[in-house]
């Protein structure tokens, strides 16, 4: 990375955040909190710009869409994946990012469901069985208990923890390396972003190597200071000893998951481990210890999620004639509603989605809806203060795990109806209400402005990419000409040689001192107008030389064919005489042409072009091919006659 402050990564984990995440200190770019939402600060020249995470995510998606469309494919829509613990606000932000790009969204599905779809589709089995999928990814560890059928995937239970993930494991190695560096050289890698990046990359590589080796492995980082190189050794045992607390949390999380899902009682056929950190030994050992089953590694996390989303998009859109599958998912965190009088769980953990509920509550002017521990929205009602009235709320949870308040009515109900779910809604009068979302979602005006900004940034990106390509093309052409400068002296006069060297030297000095690449295309065109006429003479001589070499090889083949004709004696004397005369005439022309080329200096164009030699060769072939065909046919007839005897 050459511009660390403006290089944005790991953006999906910042979607829907009200405040800075716990790993904000591990990021190399700046984040700010304003208007109750997280923003990423980037610089454009002397100006600082604050962007929402969903706006940055839309840039990622736009780049992917442009790459696919450049390959000649048309995109009608997409299915996007999210971690199982993504809040309703975060999922709504994902839809906003797709709306900025102008891409139709068929749905938002959980990563675990996408991986389960891939497993069932590509590892098809007609049996019914249950399996556990554990995804130890970069940002989160997800546990999923899934029921598989021939044409169905049903998620029975899912949960997630943030304490065991690839990012935290890499950061633990990074901390060990930083402590060693401070102790030995009194240099703190956190003081420099470039040094931090070097140490983080080395820690990531070391983490991967430690998952497959028990030996003490070295890592070397050069030039961390004046004449200082950092060497660090770490073995698998020391690495795992530094993560005792993380291992205990992972063990407890797995035990809680098995208890809540009743997986051990319902049965488990297999355990699938996926994710970048799934091959770390202590993860596998804990799974074997608790479940008493060796895990399998048949899926790649990124590929399985991508394929699962693609298959879901195909089934929903109906673009291809595939059999529809039954897909069921469950809620990872409960959805609750609170007021001054009530505290009710609308959708408990493991609620099937999509689903609907209708509940009667005490009359109140304000209701608060929470997804897990995070406030989703505040509902303000206009009530008449009648003590005999109650509030009936109808809500729905879509397949995207998005909550929708369908209707709020005022009903007359006694205490027997309060806090009870109604299978048939009670009749009542509609209430006026206002929903205030806790997270400041993009308004319609902000979405329109974001679309305009995305379009403008896309045009700028294309322009910058074209300028960069023009600069690379100019540098390559100057390097190629400089490389040929020694050979070109045989093909140029003194004045032409001076013009050639002057033009190359001038462009080379401009490239060394250039601060902008705006004029690269124009300078490349101007340089070619000077150099190409000089290079064309050299190319013409080389092309003629190559074509004459091909002509010589072709003549040798004709001579060998003539000798075979004489030996086999399968043609008439007229055909043989005609064939030999063609070869003799061609050989005479070839020898005279070689003499002309020898007498022609390299300072002048060759006496004939390569196309002329190729045309000459094709004319000879038209005359000789019918005679060669007669010869081959006579040989076939003689072989057939021999076998008949």
Overall pLDDT, averaged? Answer: 85
Helical percentage = 40-55%
- Shape, principal axes of CA atoms: elongated
Q: What is the straight-line distance between the termini?
A: 80 Å
Please mark out the parts with pLDDT under 50 across 5 or more consecutive residues, or reply none. 639-645
Secondary-structure-based class equals alpha+beta
Task: Please give the count of helices.
Answer: 16
Strand portion, in percent?
A: 15-25%
Radius of gyration of CA atoms, rounded to a whole number: 37 Å
Q: How would a textbook summarize the main sheet?
A: 6 strands, mixed
Entry summary:
The chain is an alpha+beta fold and 645 residues long. It has helices spanning 53-70, 88-101, 111-122, 166-185, 193-210, 236-241, 244-261, 263-266, 281-291, 301-317, 444-483, 485-488, 494-513, 520-568, 573-599, 610-644, and strands at residues 30-34, 37-44, 47-51, 78-82, 105-110, 129-136, 141-149, 152-161, 217-225, 228-234, 270-274, 326-330, 335-338, 343-347, 352-353, 355-362, 366-371, 374-381, 389-397, 403-412, 420-421, 429-430, 433-437.
Describe the structure in your own words.
The protein is α+β, with helices and mostly antiparallel strands and about 650 residues long. The protein is about 50% helix and about 20% strand. The chain has helices at about 55-70, 90-100, 110-120, 165-185, 195-210, 235-240, 245-260, 265, 280-290, 300-315, 445-485, 485-490, 495-515, 520-570, 575-600, 610-645, and strands at about 30-35, 35-45, 45-50, 80, 105-110, 130-135, 140-150, 150-160, 215-225, 230-235, 270-275, 325-330, 335-340, 345, 350-355, 355-360, 365-370, 375-380, 390-395, 405-410, 420, 430, 435. The strands form six sheets. The protein has a six-stranded mixed sheet, with helices on both faces. A five-stranded antiparallel sheet has the order 14-13-17-18-23, with no helix packed on it. α1 (about 55-70) crosses α2 (about 90-100), α2 crosses α11 (about 445-485) and α4 (about 165-185) crosses α5 (about 195-210). It is elongated. It starts with about 30 loop residues before the first strand and ends with a helix. Residues about 640-645 have low confidence and may be disordered.
